[in-house]
Specification:
Helix content: over 70%
CATH topology: Helix Hairpins
Number of helices: 3
Order of helices and strands: HHH
Strand content: under 5%
CATH class: Mainly Alpha
Number of domains: 1
Radius of gyration: 14 Å
Structural class: mainly alpha
Number of strands: 0
Amino acid sequence: MKASEIRELSNAELNEKLTALKAELFNLRFQHAINQLENPMRMKEVKKDIARIKTVQRQLEMKNVQ
């Protein structure tokens, strides 16, 4: 997911997406622990998407404060 796509989402959508990605990351870590992970690069992608969403949320938060 690109940062430009993330910036177009509302706060509620950002929270939903963040929750879904955290759940997916948990499942991927669990699969990795029992050696059933098919695509190890997916973990990296999910972590980066989580970071992008948190960054956009923080930017919006700082914009509202000013």
